[in-house]
Amino acid sequence: MIISNSIATFGRFCMFMRRVFSIPDRMSIFLRRTLVEISKLGVDSIPLVIVISMFIGAVCTIQMQLNVTSPIMPAYAVGLATRDIVLLEFSNSILCLILAGKVGSNIASEIGTMRVTEQIDALEIMGVNSANHLVLPKILGFVCFMPVLSIMCIGTAFVGGYLVALFTDLIPVSRYVYGLQAMFIEWYVWYGLIKSLIFAFIITSVASFFGYYVKGGALEVGRSSTNAVVASSIFILLFDVILTKLLLQ
């Protein structure tokens, strides 16, 4: 029963995505809505990304310094480990798990409210492809802006660790900076950006799907928002494992 329901839901999702990824009827309106979604979903997330990244970078630096006490470890190991943690996981996987709560719930509740108030039905009566009109700008806007958030997260996390080295005596600033530069692998940056793009698509598409097919009233809208965040988080973790295996072999 669970398997059949899952297959049916996946089929529904694929049909929904087919409606979403069609050519917009009016390109000028589509581009204008995309810019609005970039501002609402991406730009408005910048303060959250900066605050979280700053503290995570500081915590990673402190934890690495306090726990790496072996004399055989090089002096720059703290900066190197902090850098790789941020590049490989935090700036993409963990960041998108956090944004799934903010962006995903926002999308699901917005589209779900439009469904229960019959605004989507009104669009369909007017001959508008409501899935394409409402969802595609959100997906495209957030996916396009996600690399900016990811790069901003990387830089802010490094600044958080630098402030720890600057204002405490845990690690000299020179060792921390040298660790950030030591044995740098450029592919790690591209790896993180690729993952962030895929995770951004998962967040927006899954949240839109749950919001679009909500039935009932305000209670069901809240439930669909919660389900969207949970489902997005599960898929992010699942694809994190798959992409890590594929991209870091």
Description:
It is a single chain. The protein has helices spanning 2-20, 27-42, 46-67, 77-116, 119-125, 130-167, 173-181, 186-212, 218-247. The chain is mainly alpha-helical and 249 residues long. Helix 3 (46-67) crosses helix 6. The chain is elongated, with a radius of gyration of 21 Å.
Spell out the blueprint of helices and strands.
Layout: H1 2-20, H2 27-42, H3 46-67, H4 77-116, H5 119-125, H6 130-167, H7 173-181, H8 186-212, H9 218-247
Helix pairs in contact: 1-6, 2-6, 3-4, 3-6, 4-6, 4-7, 4-8, 4-9, 6-7, 6-8, 8-9
Number of helices: 9
Strand pairing plus helix content: what structural class? mainly alpha
Mean pLDDT: 89
Strand content: under 5%
Largest sheet: none
Taking all Cα atoms into account, the compactness measure Rg is 21 Å
SSE run = HHHHHHHHH
Secondary structure: number of strands: 0
Low-confidence runs: none
The first-to-last residue Cα distance is 37 Å
Helical fraction? over 70%
Structural shape: elongated
Brief write-up:
By secondary structure, this protein is an all-alpha fold. Helix content is 84%, strand content 0%. The chain has 9 helices and no strands.
What key attributes describe this structure?
249 residues; single chain; elongated; mainly alpha; 84% helix; 9 helices
